[in-house]
Amino acid sequence: MSGIDLRKLTISSALNHMSKGDFSAEDLAMAYVDVIDKENPEINAYIRKFDSSFEMAKIVDQKRRNGEPLGRLAGIPLGIKDAILVKGEVATSASKILEGHKAVYDSTVVSRLRLEDAVFLGSTNMDEFAMGSSTQTSAYGVCRNPVDKTRVPGGSSGGSCAAVAADMALAAIGSDTASSVRQPASFCGVVGMKTTYGSVSRYGLIAMTSSLDQIGPVTKNVEDSELIFDIISGKDQMDSTSIPFEKRNSKDVNKDDVVVGIPVDYPKDGVDEDVIKNFEESIEKIKSLGYKTAEIKMPHMKYSLASYYLFMPAEVSANLARFDGMRYGLHVEGSDLLGDYMKTRGEGFGKEVRRRIILGTYVLSAGYYDAYYNKAMKVRDLITKDFDEAYKTVNAILLPTTPEPAFKIGEKMDDPVKMYLQDVFTVPANISEVPCISVPSGFVKRDGVDLPLGLQIMAPRFREDICFKVGRDFEKITNE
Amino acid sequence: MIEYEEVEHLAKLARIEMSDDEKKELQKDLESILNYATIIEEITDDVQKELPSHRNVMREDSTPHESGEFTKGIVDLYPDKKGDYLRVKKIIN
Questions:
Q1: What is the pLDDT of residues A242-265, one digit of tens each?
Q2: CB spacing of A327 vs B86 below 8 angstroms
């Protein structure tokens, strides 16, 4: 083992150590790979390691020795969610149907990280096609929560969050459609960011629900999250839904200009009492930091999840129609062409994916389209309007991240609705396209183990800087 | 109530082969998911859909990359091929 204390390392401290020569990028990559080799057989945060990691680290060390300019992530070892393409590496979205699928190009996020000299350690585990809240639907085995290995890490970016929490990566990249970065970040005690829709390119992200999917960082603290966001965000001509926006730094946000909204009517049914207590304590902390707060009403927020479970499967069924066994990935022989399709998709997709495709097909079928899909889209607009109204008087909104702490492996797998309820506090930010950060907010004890909880801080679209500012202040007081 | 035959039809439309047991299970699952989701029916509020400011994003025709740059990588992924051609089963008998 190396002498590097990974536990305390952050991106800025690691960069500092490497520039002082305390250790090299190769030493650092080696230290993380050592942990992966030791812990991954049990935690399963990675589906596969990349052979190229050490080569990438050596190039950074060489550049440093030569005195060449270095990127802002020079030698920082990252985990990349298996739904995000890294040229030449296999990317499967944790599905059997993409077994052996080797990416022929870099996703925009990955090429931007490359430009900053980051080191990629491997593909992190996830729910199949990002459909799930526990990383149990992965075709490559369940991922365990490093805090308590009998529990789930959350999902779908469970592998990315478990990797950061277990010192198997210094930071990681995930994607968030309804909760998929924030809920696992909360379960694993790390920081997870859902970025404004359109702020980060989706080019090279294997799609689940295109109108919601956003890539975001998983980090140990808010400062690291802001750095990665700054690097990966910005207009990309390869993604027509990416939007140019003015970049801002959280250091320029004045506390006095922030008014934090507290929704008085957030859904409380089925929410763990300790979560509500922790949320109330978090609100007090925010107040004690000197932030102005205001009570707000968001009457349609409680319908977010219901509308999501109507329009999301519709998009899923359309997006996943491309996986037919013809051009890449799994191919299972049938007696004719139709048989090839039926067998490939039947065997290649896991149970939850099959369930959502069928539900989406139903929702979009003649006779139900208006009642379900159109109605859900109208509700989506109403929820967005609630946010627009709220942002007339406040410029940040708080919510708990999850309705409960990490649950046991095996739980909720036979009850889809119970599993879906995991997204109750997180999906409103996706629906209204606003940025949202989940920051650790304390612990609750279950079976003698301290399980982490998270606080969500939302802001108006493209005002990530407010999320980072409030997040940094909250993080500081919570860590005291 | 979703009939078994309906699930069977949906599976066929979605081109997914599945067992009878799974179809029966799906019948129950869809029922419970839709049962939960239809709480949105109680909403009577209306909203004027605003056209998004970011729409119909076009670009000029151009050469985005060198011809053939990705060909080998893509062809390598074909499950069945003849030269650079993708081979599939006969469609018209």
A1: 999 999 999 999 999 999 999 999
A2: yes
